[in-house]
Amino acid sequence: MSRRLLCLCSQRPSVPASQCPSVIQQQQRPSVPASQPSASFSSLSVPACRSDHVDRRVPGDGDVAIRECGMWTRLSDTSLLLVHYDALRRRGKGRLTVSFIGISAFTIWRGDVPETVKYLLILFLGAVLIAVPLYRLSPLHRLHGGPGPKLNKITELTMLYYAVLGLRHNKLRALHDRYGRVVRIGPNTLSFISPTAISSIYGSANAPDKSTAYDMQHLKGDGLFFLKDKASHSRRRRIWNRSFSEEALLGYQDPLVREIEHLFDLLLKKTSNNGKVDLVKILPQYSYDSMSLLDSDDPANIAAEGTKFFRLSELFTHIQPLFHCLMLIPGISRFMSFEKLSILAAERRLKNGATFRDGISYWFDGDEFQPKLHPRDLPIEAETILLGGADTLGSTTTMMFYFLITNPKWITVLREELRDVFDEQGRSQQLNSLDQIPILEAFVQETLRLGTLLPGLPRVVPNGGMIIDGHHIPSGTVVNVPVWAYHVDPDYFPNPRAFDPNRWIENENFSIKVHSMAFGVGMYNCVGSKLALTQLRILLAMAVHRLEFTPEPGFDSEKFWNGMRNTRTADFMEPLWVRVTHRNPSD
Ligand code: HEM
User: Fold this and answer.
1) What is the bridge-based pairing of β-strands 277-278 and 577-582?
2) Would you list the domain boundaries of the chain?
3) Which residues fall in the annotated binding site for heme?
4) Best mutation site among 391, 529, 540 for ligand 1, i.e. most ligand atoms within 8 A of its Cβ?
5) Where does heme bind (predicted)?
6) What mean pLDDT do residues 420-440 have?
7) Could you read off the pLDDT of 162-212 as tens digits, one per residue?
């Protein structure tokens, strides 16, 4: 049967397609058979006819004349997207709409669909864009009773905006100031501030699971931080716990002191070379070193990559369904280079072993009663150490020095308390009992309270729902306590914005009236908290005993504070220039 192609170009409707320059050009391009869609997103660059040159079936000719252009090419791209989105959808609830909108928007954007389909899609999109917000605001929505701003109830993009700015910690505080103890901060998210909510959400035996905000990695294997299944989590947690036993912590003490001395040498050297040193640059690096997975000069810049990883993964907390898609785009997926660096760190650790009995050594010990870590899980656990341990510790130590420098009266108090702890050579036999020094302990706790900018630890309400602070919360709702907003709540921590270690002291003893949430609560709480506290205490004690810190003239502490951004930990926009010199301990 003969086939005749006519160009449907609006300017030249009756010209045979074979004579239309556009069509000729199209036909000269390599065709992509519809039955063989490319295996990756690279197919998105396959050239296609513009809609005004779409070849159509010619009435009477009786054969399909659509070849490489129009719907076929387009369908193969779209179905590729569909397959991908569908795979995502099957991993969790609530992604179908996002997927459909994504596909529709993409298809319209490409513009190569017949007009009717195009208008139908526009109509559908329009309907979705109107119906979804109306539904989310309506009494039909299951979180209708939750107080909060309308825009937050309609879209997750509101919190995404503050995440991009790095100001969610402040925004959440402001929302609770305005709306009270419970706020609907997203279409499906409730934020609570109260000790009873903390114990329901994190502390109870049936505490809800981690939300999709924790699905932010691509490495194979199981890592403690990312494990959600409670049984697998507690098996892995038993392995990790061995690294933080009393015996293990005691064994880390000498290497820790060496790491701190190395840091002090660096601070002194930089000061004598440049007259000052930026603590924002140096302290995170020290924390990564102290996790002993890195070369001390960090040639791969792993510390900076870690911060980038944290920054981006926080944004994806609010658009999690897009995480796996966007990660396929080359520019964006670059941030995953942190994962590659984690693999390298793990490989290096496996190849070179450790210079002392470090935390990882404990994971590979085991007997018939003790589970061991399989080496294939080391890369993802290395990532967990670097993210969970190094980045958090880096920002907390930076905060600690900021509070020290801006509250010099506490330096004097601390020195007085530490008078008998160090000998004349500056050594101490009491480093493992520094927690017995009330002011030191109070200083560290106060740093963690005011300096942990965490916006929250989101969890998902299980089937059957749960009661939080007297409210029945339906299953599938994301519930969260915004850690920093809680830490600066005047009902629990009076005069909350003031840095005041005295709030942790009663009758000259260290005393906890209200627990902070700096290390989380419940079964997923920080497994490394004892190590972190040990490091902070030793670093603080040695620093005030051995060094003098003089801020750069004109240092603006408010500007520094306002330049702090919340990632999952904290990011500092302003430098913290100080002059570090030796101190004569007898002064
Ligand atoms: C000042 C320093 C630190 C802070 C503020 C901190 C904070 C936290 C918080 C809030 C959580 C709970 C996360 C959640 O509930 O979702 C957590 C979990 C965790 N942290 Fe830390 N952390 C610190 C240091 C460390 C260190 C030194 C390590 C290890 C070397 C570590 C390893 C972990 C791991 C593995 C988890 C996941 C625990 C689990 O799911 O069972 N952290 N951390």
Assistant:
1) antiparallel
2) 3-137, 216-454+499-582
3) 526
4) 529
5) 526
6) 88
7) 998 999 999 999 999 999 999 999 999 999 999 999 999 999 878 899 998
Determine the Cα–Cα distance for residues 298 and 292; give it in Å rounded to an integer: 11
Rounded to an integer, the average pLDDT of 513-537 is 94
Q: Which residues are CB-neighbours of 170 under 8 A, at least 6 positions away? A: none
What digits encode the pLDDT tens for the residues 355-382? 888 888 888 876 667 788 988 898 889 8
Distance 89 CA to ligand 1 centre (A): 30
Average pLDDT, the chain: 79
CB-based contact 460:476 (threshold 8 Å): yes
CATH of domain 216-454+499-582: 1.10.630.10
Separation of CA 457 and ligand 1 centre (Å): 11
Q: Which two tokens stand for residue 11?
A: 């300017």
Confidence band, pLDDT 50/70/90 cuts, at residue 387: confident
Nearest partner of 382 among 220, 202, 144, 147, judged by Cα: 220
Kindly state the tokens that stand for 381.
């656990």
> Can you give the length of the chain in residues?
587
The answer to whether 180 and 499 have CB atoms below 8 angstroms apart is: no
Half-sphere exposure of residue 297: CA atoms within 13 angstroms, side-chain side: 1
Asked whether residue 121 carries a pLDDT value surpassing 90, the answer given is: no
Cβ neighbours for 72, distance < 8 A, ≥ 6 positions apart: 34, 66
- Rounded CA-CA distance 21/394 in Å is 62
Look at the alpha carbons of 515, 516, 517, 518 in this order and tell me if their dihedral is positive or negative. negative
Q: Which atom of ligand 1 lies nearest, measured to the CA of 233?
A: 41
How many angstroms separate the CA atoms of 36 and 43, rounded? 11
- Give ipTM to 2 decimals: 0.99
User: Which amino acid does the sequence have at 439?
Assistant: I
| Distance of CA 526 from the midpoint of ligand 1 (Å) | 4
Distance in angstroms (rounded) separating the CA atoms of residues 441 and 134:
51
